[in-house]
Amino acid sequence: MTIMNDFPVLDELIALLERTPATLAALLDGLPEIWVTATEGDGTWSPFVVVGHLVHGERTDWIPRARHILAGDPRPFEAFDREAQFSESRDKSIGELLATFARARQENLETLRGFSLTSEDLGRRGLHPELGEVTLGQLLATWVVHDLDHVGQVARTMAKVNATTVGPWAAYLSILRDRVVP
Amino acid sequence: MTIMNDFPVLDELIALLERTPATLAALLDGLPEIWVTATEGDGTWSPFVVVGHLVHGERTDWIPRARHILAGDPRPFEAFDREAQFSESRDKSIGELLATFARARQENLETLRGFSLTSEDLGRRGLHPELGEVTLGQLLATWVVHDLDHVGQVARTMAKVNATTVGPWAAYLSILRDRVVP
To answer: Which residue in B7, B152, B159 is closest to A155 by CB distance?
Structure first.
């Protein structure tokens, strides 16, 4: 990432953001159910739950918060509901969630491009309900890292499906030891 | 993963293996250079290096070792060269490496299907040069987990590009604290 004045470069962020729906679709669409519903243990999320969470973020998090900052609204952002996908994804298939995510992401990136943000805009501030003062640049960089965090989580969760069937090779497969739920 | 007699289900493994090239292409092909060459620090691998390593594995690791086991060869497998991609990928673009990986994977899965493996075959044994006795079923499960390990690594490496530009949000982005190189 090229850093200018501590701000991320918007085009580089967008290049990543526009790839996430296709990445998750390539990995998950049409995959046997056993992979899509796997978790890392009690209280952890399956790939299905992760995609529902990403859909909810497209609706309520990134662009609404960007608008909030650009409007100069001094109130804190509305808190993000980390459990919304459990009700919203009910009765949906992974294919439907992936398609909804792709559509919502595309619309949101059109909106983002439409803002024609300047470096000055990226420094504009908003108030996070827990974290305090944040900038628009930080919000957009977080959008990208949040995507990658969940892509990594999906890979890790599916890797653990075969934690024991790999036998002695487990010694070389360090992902099996990441985030082991106690 | 459905486990029968401690063996993975071949169709479920193949469903994952055939998706990895498209997953990495969706994420990396055409992405600005800054993402593709990023690392987690000295001695760690960029996404470019990871894809070269996957190409080398298609040529020298999985199917050659499966053949070795099926031939009943009592000698240890040839050791895998973990550095081969540094010379083999030289002068190649990420797009070329991704296309080579996709072609090699497709051919290897055709070969694998052509073996028409039985449950009994999955229990056949080979000798790993470091790990000792392993089964064909363990080799094939390892192929899958190895893919996912590297998909997770690519996501983690690219997430860290924005480790500081996310500002206070770093507190919520746990991937930024995974595998931090000292």
So the answer is: B152
How confident is the model over B32-73, as pLDDT tens digits? 999 999 999 999 999 999 999 999 999 999 999 999 999 999
List the beta bridge partners of residue B68: none
Q: What's the pLDDT at A1?
A: 41
Whether residues B131 and A169 touch (CB distance < 8 A) is answered with yes
Phi-psi map region of A47: left, alpha, beta (phi>0 left; psi -120 to 50 alpha): alpha
Number of Cβ within a 10 Å radius of residue A12: 20
Of B159, B76, B160, B91, nearest in space to B125 by CA? B76
Collect all residues of chain B within an 8 Å Cβ-Cβ radius of residue A2: 34
Q: Which residue of A has its CA nearest to B125?
A: A167
Whether the predicted pLDDT of A5 surpasses 50 = no
User: Looking at residue A8, what is its pLDDT?
Assistant: 80
Neighbours of B2 (CB within 10 A): 11
Task: Write down the H helix ranges in A7-135.
Answer: 10-17, 20-28, 33-36, 47-60, 62-70, 84-88, 94-114, 119-122
| Residue whose structure tokens are 């919304």 | A84
Query: Closest to B3 (Cβ–Cβ): which among A25, A142, A165?
Result: A165
B168 interfacial to chain A (CB closer than 8 Å): yes
A180 touches chain B (CB under 8 A): no
Which residues are registered as beta bridge partners of B124? none
* Chain segment B87-113, per-residue pLDDT in tens: 898 899 999 999 999 999 999 999 999
